[in-house]
């Protein structure tokens, strides 16, 4: 049984405080959904957990099985068992999915006998064309292919905990069902613990959330069962945002913000 314990975590980006005291504990096999308005800091939380440069932890702690993550480089966090499925997966021209996965597995000391067979099987489970695994990582992939590919990487790497930042964005209904089912199966297959950032209850139809958290103003404001996601869909976030002191801070200008949501989702 593994445990990811985030306590009073505060962090800033570009000199601006974004995370204002996040408390969250996730154990093996659990699914925690995080739902919150645009610009509330959900992706920032993902990046801070994974150690993306430019995101500065200013207080609190994040412990994976007792190991403080903030002192580790991103690759060491990955080796410790953390995985991030990014909201906007990075394109890496000239580096194929297959080589990324082979090198990752070698680095983890887990090189299986037939990477290609496993890869093909996992690609089929989420409806990703196996021909894509020879192509450059994410380059010219459709939105759906990128998210399916993140899921295949997750399935091969078998991390202890996965942060899935809007894994449902860009997926059509069939792809959504396949991806959410694959992640749900992982929770029992090897006890994956999941933090799923999403705007939509429909992700949670197959990926069953044990806990739903309302996230606004850089922290979790309320936690409850799946019924919270349903209530939210009807009422919106206004109630929580107002209780926490008004609107989200004005976002930085779009041209300086690589993480702005171009679709306004
Ligand atoms: P969410 O994922 O909840 O929509 P984000 O975590 O992406 O929100 O963003 C929270 C706030 O932090 C936004 O106002 C965003 O503009 C700002 N922000 C995030 N990353 C950066 C960055 N690298 N540089 C400047 N501002 C950033
Ligand atoms: Mg985001």
Task: Report on this structure.
With 265 residues, the chain is an alpha/beta fold. The chain has a domain at 3-88 and 159-243: 3-Layer(aba) Sandwich (Rossmann fold). Helix content is 32%, strand content 28%. It has 8 helices and 12 strands. Helix 3 (97-107) packs parallel to helix 5 (143-157), helix 4 packs across helix 5 and helix 5 (143-157) runs parallel beside helix 6. Residues 252-256 and 260-265 have low confidence and may be disordered. Bound molecules: adenosine-5'-diphosphate and magnesium ion. Residues 13-14, 18, 36, 38-44, 54, 251-252, 257, 259 line the site of adenosine-5'-diphosphate. Adenosine-5'-diphosphate (ADP) is lined by residues 13-14, 18, 36, 38-44, 54, 251-252, 257, 259.
List key phrases describing it.
265 residues; alpha/beta; Rossmann fold; 6-stranded mixed β-sheet; 12 strands; 28% strand; binds adenosine-5'-diphosphate; binds magnesium ion
Task: Give the cofactors and ligands.
Answer: adenosine-5'-diphosphate, magnesium ion
Question: Would you identify the CATH architecture of the domain at 3-88 and 159-243?
Answer: 3-Layer(aba) Sandwich
CATH superfamily of the domain at 3-88 and 159-243: P-loop containing nucleotide triphosphate hydrolases
Total of DSSP H or I helical runs spanning 4+ residues: 8
How many β-strand runs? 12
Order of helices and strands: EEEHEEHEEHHEHEHEEEHH
Q: What would you call the shape? A: globular
Name the poorly predicted regions. Answer: 252-256, 260-265
* Helix fraction bin: 25-40%
Question: Please, what is the average pLDDT?
Answer: 89
Q: Which strand order do you get reading across the main beta sheet?
A: 6-9-10-3-11-12
Specify the CATH class of the domain at 3-88 and 159-243. Answer: Alpha Beta
């Amino acid at each position: 049984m593994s445990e990811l314990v985030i306590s009073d975590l505060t962090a800033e980006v570009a000199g601006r405080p974004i995370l204002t005291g996040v408390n969250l504990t996730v154990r093996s096999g659990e699914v925690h959904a995080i739902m919150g308005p645009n610009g509330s800091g959900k992706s920032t939380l993902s990046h801070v957990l994974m150690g993306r440069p430019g995101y500065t932890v200013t207080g609190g702690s994040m412990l994976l099985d007792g190991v403080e993550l903030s002192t580790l480089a991103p690759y060491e966090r990955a080796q410790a068992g953390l995985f991030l499925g990014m909201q906007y997966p990075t394109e890496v021209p000239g580096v194929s999915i297959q080589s990324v996965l082979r090198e990752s597995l070698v680095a983890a000391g887990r090189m299986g006998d037939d990477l290609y067979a496993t890869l093909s099987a996992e690609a089929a489970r989420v409806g990703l064309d196996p021909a894509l695994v020879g192509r450059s990582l994410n380059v010219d992939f459709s939105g759906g292919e990128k998210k399916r590919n993140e899921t295949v990487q997750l399935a091969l790497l078998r991390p202890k905990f996965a942060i899935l930042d809007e894994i449902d964005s860009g997926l059509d209904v069939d792809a959504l069902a396949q991806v959410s089912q694959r992640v749900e199966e992982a929770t029992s297959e090897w006890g994956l613990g999941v933090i799923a950032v999403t705007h939509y209850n429909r992700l949670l139809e197959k990926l069953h959330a044990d806990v739903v958290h309302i996230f606004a103003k850089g922290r979790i404001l309320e936690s409850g069962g799946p019924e919270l996601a349903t209530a939210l869909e009807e009422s919106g976030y206004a109630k929580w945002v107002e209780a926490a002191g008004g609107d989200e801070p004005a976002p930085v200008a779009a041209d300086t913000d690589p993480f702005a949501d171009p679709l306004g989702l």
